[in-house]
Design a protein that fits this description.
With about 525 residues, this protein is mainly α. It is built from 25 helices and no strands. It is elongated, with a radius of gyration of 43 Å.
């Protein structure tokens, strides 16, 4: 954190000891000097949340988000949004905002989680406007894809404008490469036929008076036609056969039965001009039926929708940013949210120097002491950094102490202290646990320093050369210098010496770790 040096560790120490009033006083004092410091706003939100002052905690988190927005810092924005999510719970607005900021950083896991929640079928109608915001923000440069996704979304929730969006997407298929894989899908949905069979067309072809008003029972009408044919009433039989065709189409949409009856008519009167027209009509509606069946097969189910949205919206993962963000979350005590992600990273055998200290810190803070010891031993074999090695040993030691293996813990802490007495809280820890040994160690160090000073003095005496003594001579009076008048001239202006540029002190990683 960017708290001032003298307050930083103390404020966190109070926070971790649950002395929230003391922590709050320190932070308030700093906020008086800088009311818009992101870290202070966020930390005060944390303190208030722990004090169960939820309303004010929320206000400080929102102020931190606004500050991150001004700075255009996506890391800070996602962090503050995740903090706000802790107290507000799952909301469509938060998930949409987390998705957009995470997308800009390539934080694939957070994008997947947010999108999964926005696409839940039971909240889809409420989340639609937030999904549209996501689509417009991350795909604003790809008009076709933008319209394609919005078309699917609105058709899924039953809004007619979905077809308009898909029609616009159809126009861009040949221009945008990603859409080509869905060409048949888009054309199938956007070209869907509206309405049913056009019976008026069939009535005009058959030219049977009062056909639409007759209450025809198709099977009975066909039986009557067969009877009339059998007794030689050809014209009446043909009339009833055509009526039966109409009945099977209008009432049962039975195209096959209608085609079967038409063959009987052909046998009786092959030259009837109505026959080819009825045949063409039946073939047309049969094609339409096949098309409808095809459209039903590509109906937009929620699983298909998730697949399409994931394919078009999820970013390429940025591993470096992901590790940086997890470490940031660890430093801000968001252990439960990140621990499983750290385990996934460990399985991928990433460079331990990039995540191991924060991983062990998080495990320690949630009480997984045995796991800390186990993983510390593993990481110690893999690290190439002396600084990281100290962290690994430290977390192993404090975990062993929690597991009642105090002797081994103090042995490791002692070795760290001898190497770096100022590392984390090792000195305080050692003074509390074995003050006599620390005092003795310091005394030995002091004696060693004194011995070094004596040795240096001896070397100086050995190397010093004898100084020659010169006889004292009486001083000679010097004549007074002649005074010469000099014409006054303006003294040249001396170039002002530049002040050295301020050196920014690099904040060591260890400042973030306060173990109580």
């Amino acid at each position: 954190m960017l708290l001032k040096e003298r307050f930083q560790n103390l404020a966190f120490k109070y926070f971790n000891q649950r002395e929230f009033e003391k922590a709050l006083k320190l932070v308030d004092r700093l906020l008086e000097e800088n009311k818009e410091d992101f870290n202070l706003l966020l930390f005060k939100g944390d303190i208030l949340a722990q004090m169960e002052d939820i309303e004010n905690a929320q206000n400080y988190y929102i102020s931190a988000i606004e500050k991150a927005n001004k700075e255009k810092d996506n890391f800070k924005r996602v962090l503050a949004l995740m903090k706000l999510k802790r107290i507000q719970g799952e909301t469509n607005e938060l998930n949409a905002r987390i998705f957009i900021s995470s997308y800009n950083l390539g934080l694939l896991k957070l994008c997947e989680d947010a999108l999964e929640k926005l696409l839940r079928e039971d909240v889809l109608e409420e989340s639609a406007k937030f999904l549209e915001r996501v689509i417009n923000d991350v795909k604003k440069e790809e008009e076709g894809v933008c319209n394609f996704l919005k078309g699917i979304l609105y058709l899924k929730i039953g809004k007619e404008e979905g077809k308009d969006f898909l029609s616009k997407a159809k126009e861009k298929i040949d221009e945008e490469e990603k859409l080509k894989n869905y060409k048949e899908f888009i054309e199938g949905i956007s070209g869907a036929r509206e309405g049913g069979i056009d019976l008026k067309e069939l009535e005009d072809i058959l030219q049977i008076e009062g056909l639409a008003e007759r209450k025809l029972e198709p099977a009975g009408t066909l039986e009557l036609a067969d009877l009339l044919r059998s007794i030689g009433s050809q014209e009446e039989a043909i009339l009833e056969y055509f009526s039966a065709i109409y009945g099977y189409i209008s009432q049962e949409n039975n195209i096959e039965k209608a085609k079967e009856i038409l063959e009987k008519v052909k046998e009786m009167t092959p030259d009837d001009e109505r026959i080819p027209k009825v045949q063409e009509f039946l073939e047309k509606i049969e094609k339409e039926e096949v098309k409808e069946e095809k459209e039903e097969k590509i109906e937009i189910g929620i699983d298909l929708m998730k697949k399409i949205f994931s394919e078009f919206l999820l970013p390429e993962e940025n591993t470096d940013n992901w590790l940086s963000f997890l470490n940031l979350m660890s430093e801000w005590n968001m252990f439960e949210e990140i621990i499983d992600y750290y385990r996934e990273i460990e399985e991928k055998e990433a460079n331990v120097d990039l995540f191991a200290p924060h991983y062990l810190y998080s495990l320690y803070m949630i009480g997984e002491y045995e796991e800390v010891v186990e993983k510390a031993d593993k990481f110690i074999e893999q690290t190439e950094s002396e600084e990281v090695l100290k962290f690994l040993k430290y977390f192993k030691a404090v975990s062993l102490y929690k597991l009642e293996n105090k002797e081994k813990a103090l042995e490791i802490l002692g070795s760290i202290y001898e190497q770096d007495p100022g590392f984390l809280d090792v000195k305080d820890y050692m003074e509390e646990k074995r003050p006599e040994e620390v005092t003795l160690s310091e005394k030995i160090l002091e004696e060693e320093k004194e011995e070094e000073v004596v040795e240096i003095e001896e070397v100086i005496e050995e190397k010093a050369e004898p100084v020659e003594v010169i006889e004292e001579v009486e001083p000679v009076e010097e004549p007074e210098p002649e005074v010469v008048e000099i014409e006054e001239k303006e003294a040249p202006v001396q170039a002002q010496e530049k002040a050295p540029a301020p050196v920014m002190e690099k904040k060591p990683l260890k400042e973030h770790f306060i173990i109580i």
